[in-house]
Amino acid sequence: MIDRVTDHRSLPRISTSLVVKAVLAVYWTRLGSLNALALTRTAKFWKSWLDGPLCSADSLGRIVASLEADPLRQGIHHVYDRLKRNKALPDLHGLGVAVLDGHETSASYRRCCAGCLKRTTSSGQMHFYHRNVTLMLLCGSPPDRPAVRLLLDLEPLQPGEGELAPALRLLERVLAAYPRAFDLVLADAYYAVAPFLNFLWEHGKQVLVVLKDERRDAYEDAAGLWAQQPPQLGSYDSRSCRWWDVPDLLSWPEVQGAIRVVRSEESWTVKPQLTKEVTPQTTSWVWLTTLSVAQARTEQVVRLAHLRWDIENHGFNELVNGWHAGHVYRHHSGAIECFLLLAFLAYNIFHAFFALNLKPAVRRGRTMEFVVRLIATEIHVIPRLCPTAAPP
Ligand SMILES: [Zn+2]
Asked: Across-strand partners of 99?
């Protein structure tokens, strides 16, 4: 898979595979910078992992900026394919589920590149940033092992465009490469728009998105109906819920097919450390979906809808805080995209390794953080910390 990665250099002195392997190791060891990697150059590990000496931080950044993104995407697909064939990616509540969301990966007032997006802050300062739309595959798991989630692909926002256009480009590419990987796409309220719903409907996929009251027709029609409907009582996690389910709404003529609106009022209690008083909490959600009642009961819709947060909690937050994927290793739009795709590849392989390769007995009582430190130890075993000869 790594040998198939290519770049745009005409007479390369350093092999592309060496760079790809070195960057994957930066992520697996969570080093957070290419300069930190350069400090480990004399580690024994590199001799067995790379087919040559480790190059400088500057060369690594420059070569990643010239990498072709497509072979990296094919690498991610290869990992998915192997896991799928080994039946390691079971459905969730009977459905293949993916979640889509936009994420800002880096922002700066001082540094910019040709691919930077720009916005003016309230104080009149120009802010430069990079943002992309990402798709994550969510999978079920037996009770004795953690679930595997795969970061499938990303599409950067181009200057001047909103999230919808890159989201549709991303889905177009992912649906061609992974036609049967998922049946349902989860997304936030931004995506409760007719072009998004129709695009997935035309590709035979279902949608489940948050519905806010801006979509007045569908929302008001559903609100009118749930006012006359007694709620179903249920639970989600430790929350008691009241659910209203309004299928077959035809109040949004721009949308192809019937839509369904599900509302969940959820209540639970918390005991803050400071006051130690039991305090009731409530929240209310409204979702719009193209899933029929036969495809998913109300309870399933609620459970699936709450999985939308997985891309924030297990994707973006973990990538930024655990994997240093928000760090700008080289400020160049091509490099930012390829570093992120390499981070996705490292993330997918690590999680598959942790959940599926480690024996439950080895995993028991050990956190993921422990395994990360064990991996990092490998590149900190340096034969001679002081290479200078002793004075005569
Ligand atoms: Zn930039």
From this structure: 136, 186
